[in-house]
Design brief:
Blueprint: E1 6-11, H1 17-27, E2 31-37, E3 40-45, E4 64-73, H2 77-91, E5 99-104, H3 121-134, E6 142-143, E7 153-160, E8 163-169, H4 174-177, H5 195-206, E9 215-219, H6 225-232, E10 236-240, H7 247-250, E11 255-258, E12 275-278, H8 284-295, E13 304-310, H9 320-329, E14 334-338, E15 346-352
Parallel strand pairs: 5-6, 5-7, 9-10, 9-12, 10-11, 12-13
Antiparallel strand pairs: 1-3, 1-4, 2-3, 4-8, 7-8, 13-15, 14-15
This protein binds S-adenosylmethionine.
């Protein structure tokens, strides 16, 4: 009997499929593109080395991925849930699954018309149907919690209301531990800008050890969502931006607003800075130039950087390896890139001088 074909499913940002597909196909010669909807793709595996247990997908643009087990179609959610249970039970030794992640593919660019990645009401309802259908065989199955590292996790993606795709992964990375690859972040009552979400996700994903009392230079700081997040964590913020900051942030006693462009900031203001965060609406080459200027200030021991690299043209994604290289050359041996769930047409780069110590994501 020939081995059944192996497929991967991949979720990415709505509208980023071409970029994600290009990245994956150029990195993995053992993948063939199979199917695509906005924010969702599958790939046929043509290489024996891409198999469960010995393969982890490395990607900037894949938000989450897993081993695909195909799809079920019906207009009735209960029937869909029953079909998923049947397919999964037929092909997997499903007794070892104790976590179920059920989410909907993105329906818009994050931040557009109020859309943000996460578990939508439709996915919540679908998850409940699935739980009901699975319960007789697997009473311990939990829905949409954070998986333990390495925990086999069932994945159901609502690609359409009447078309659910299913698969699994082993939650080997922090992002696979989050349902749909997006952290469940509760927004405070008032956030100054979406940058609050981006900074929160960046710190969680990058496990960036910024501590209470550290001084951060936040470049491109207005109106102040990222600064707001940092201030809430007890960080001192040097906010650098010619534009006005939101008064709720500007008046915080631990914030100093330097109302200038990054390159016009007097060096003495920066003497206690240990971390750089930067999000300016300029191309990556400019952002990296500014970082280089700051990192090369004598006596400024920058421990790490969180940079948003804007991609006004998706073609810039082809230069990611070159961007990473520039951070290595600046003396940051640990560099990772990811298009965060809360990013828009941009990506997040975290560069650290020292390897972080592993920690568990918290809700
Ligand atoms: C996307 S917004 C930043 C959002 C901000 N981090 C927040 O938390 O709300 C980009 C900001 O970069 C600022 N900017 C652009 N070029 C800059 C430069 N050379 N130096 C400092 N700020 C700059 C703009 O004035 C704008 O406020």
């Amino acid at each position: 009997m020939p081995e059944p074909a192996v497929f991967l499913f991949v979720c990415c940002q709505f509208g980023c499929e071409k970029t994600c597909k290009r990245e994956l196909l150029s990195r993995y010669t053992g993948l063939r593109f199979a199917f695509s909807r906005p924010g969702f793709m599958t790939f046929k595996v043509t290489d024996e080395s891409i198999r469960p247990g010995k393969f982890q997908l490395v990607s900037t643009f894949a938000r989450v991925w897993g081993w695909s087990r195909g799809k079920a179609k019906s207009h009735e959610p209960k029937e869909l849930a029953a079909a998923v249970t049947e397919i999964i039970s037929a092909v997997e030794n499903s007794s070892h699954f104790t976590m179920l992640h059920c989410w909907q593919r993105d329906t818009a660019m994050p931040g557009k018309s109020g859309f943000e990645p996460g578990i939508s009401p439709v996915a919540k309802e679908a998850g409940q149907h699935l739980l009901d259908a699975f319960t007789p065989q697997r009473p311990n199955l939990r829905l949409n919690g954070i998986s333990q590292p390495g925990q086999p996790t069932l994945c159901v993606v609502l690609v359409e209301r009447d078309e659910w795709w299913m698969g699994w992964h082993d939650a080997a990375t922090i992002t696979q531990q989050w349902p749909g690859g997006a952290p469940a972040i509760e927004l405070p009552q008032m956030v100054v800008s979406r940058a609050w979400l981006k900074m929160h996700e960046a710190v969680l994903w990058g496990q960036v050890p910024i501590q209470k009392g550290d001084v951060v230079a936040e470049i491109g700081s207005a109106p102040g969502g990222a600064a707001q997040f940092l201030l809430e964590r007890g960080v001192t913020v040097i906010a650098i931006d010619p534009a006005q900051m939101d008064p709720t942030v500007a008046e915080h006693p631990s914030l100093l607003h330097v109302r200038r462009r990054a390159r016009d900031v007097p060096k003495r203001v920066l003497k206690d800075v240990r971390w750089l965060t930067i999000d300016v609406n300029m191309p990556p080459s400019y952002t990296i130039e500014v970082i280089r200027d700051y990192v090369q200030i004598r006596g400024l021991p920058v421990r790490g950087i969180i940079a948003t690299l804007k991609l006004p043209d998706w073609k810039l994604a082809e230069d990611i390896d070159n961007y990473r290289q520039q951070f290595f050359q600046l003396g940051f041996p640990f560099v990772e890139t990811r298009q965060l769930a809360f990013n828009r047409q941009e990506l997040c780069l975290v560069a650290l001088r020292k390897r972080r110590t592993a920690s568990r994501p918290r809700r």
